[in-house]
Design brief:
elongated; alpha/beta; six-stranded parallel beta sheet; single chain
Length: 246
């Protein structure tokens, strides 16, 4: 199911969006605002485990497209989120060992869209993103994915490390990208696998990296020391594809 509304402004509009079941990624509320409608929005956000950020009026004015935000702006998902179980079922339906992308610290929507596109083309069964410190399924992500978002399920989870632990119980093992790791050509990347990609600035977080079974590096011969996150995802994904086809 696709949702066409990406930014929702105004108190009543945001309240109705929550009550109608629209998937909301984040709410921005005027700092210090305590009236009844705002209290209702906060309550609905808590029920749906939605991120709430308190910002200045200047920030809201900059974000507003209508100029009538009334102290609140919501970012709704462009597409409905899947469940992790949906991704596993997609692999089972195809009779393939699961191949899943897990993204840590990817906050640039262009990178997220590009990675979803790569995941689709590489035959991955889905993508998992964290609730916090991550881009959501915005219109920019949808456009950058070049249509892949219509075919590749994306699940949002509260805690990536716990999700990895749960998936390990179901037979998956995990490899993350890091410059200090073992060359990807020396690793066995076959079977049920989760590919963990971090941002080019911060990389994969320490706790997430500790849960991974292997740390893979991409051989680089140039004068700079890192690849764009979406490019790194593509390089590693296609090494996994090569090994799965062998």
């Amino acid at each position: 199911m696709r949702y066409e509304e990406f930014t929702i402004e105004g108190r009543n509009a945001v309240i109705e969006a929550f009550r109608s079941g629209k998937p909301i990624d984040k709410i921005f509320i005027l700092d210090g605002c305590q009236d009844g409608p705002i209290a209702t929005i906060k309550r609905e956000a808590k029920k749906q485990d939605c991120i709430v950020k308190f910002v200045t009026k200047d920030r809201l004015d900059q974000m507003s497209e209508s100029g009538k935000h009334q102290g609140v702006i919501a970012y709704a998902a462009a597409y409905e989120y899947a469940q992790v179980e949906d991704i596993l079922q997609a692999a089972e339906k195809k009779g393939e060992p699961p191949f899943i992308f897990l993204l840590d610290n990817i906050e640039d929507p262009h990178n997220l869209g590009a990675i979803i596109r790569t995941a689709n083309l590489a035959g991955a069964h889905g993508v998992i993103i964290p609730k916090n410190r991550a881009a959501g399924l915005t219109a920019t992500v949808a456009r950058t994915s070049a249509g892949a978002l219509n075919y590749t399920p994306v699940a949002k989870v509260t805690n990536l490390t716990k999700t990895i632990e749960e998936l390990k119980k179901q037979g998956l093992w995990f490899v993350c990208a890091d410059m200090e790791g073992t060359s990807m050509y020396q690793l066995n990347l076959k079977g049920a696998i989760g590919l963990v990609i971090g941002s080019e600035g911060e990389g994969v977080g320490r706790l997430v990296k500790e849960k991974c079974d292997f740390v893979a590096s991409i051989p680089m011969k140039g004068d700079i020391d890192s690849l764009n996150a979406s490019v790194a995802a593509g390089v590693l994904a296609y090494e996994i594809v090569r090994q799965r086809m062998a």
